[in-house]
Design goal:
With 113 residues, the protein is an alpha+beta fold. The chain is 58% helix and 15% strand. It has five helices and two strands. It has helices at residues 5-16, 28-40, 64-73, 76-86, 91-110; strands at 44-51, 54-62. The protein has a two-stranded antiparallel ribbon. A hairpin with a 2-residue loop joins strand 1 (44-51) and strand 2. The longest helix has 20 residues, at 91-110. The radius of gyration is 15 Å and the shape is elongated. The mean pLDDT is 82.
Length: 113
């Protein structure tokens, strides 16, 4: 299965619990796989239980890095720009682009060059 960064973003928003997130277009296999990726990437703490019948993943909370990523990715416009600029890039590349876009937006709001 391919990694879906938009689904990762939605799952992080869901874990945070501050807004309603629609995950209905994704099946259970996709959700479990991407929750595993979130834990493996260090964006959240939780557990992965692998069994012959399938995996169970429970995310307990976002990590500091997970909150940082979500803060940068929360703005839909900034998120679309970052994903468009990076294509199928790694998490680190997307985080870097999001960070640059957030800094640029903050400078614009403060009237800094």
């Amino acid at each position: 299965m391919k990694r879906n960064m938009e689904l990762i973003r939605l799952l992080l928003l869901d874990v945070e619990g501050e807004e309603e997130v629609d995950l209905s277009e994704h099946d259970e296999e996709q959700l479990v796989f991407h929750r595993e990726l979130i834990i493996e990437a260090g964006l959240a703490e939780g557990y992965i239980m692998r069994t012959f019948g399938g995996n169970t993943v429970e995310i307990e909370r976002l990590t500091w890095n997970g909150h940082d990523f979500l803060d940068a990715a929360r703005d839909s416009s900034r998120w679309r720009k970052a994903v468009k600029a990076t294509g199928p890039a790694t998490l680190e590349v997307i985080k870097s682009v999001l960070s640059s876009l957030a800094i640029s937006a903050a400078k614009d709001q403060l009237g800094l060059p």
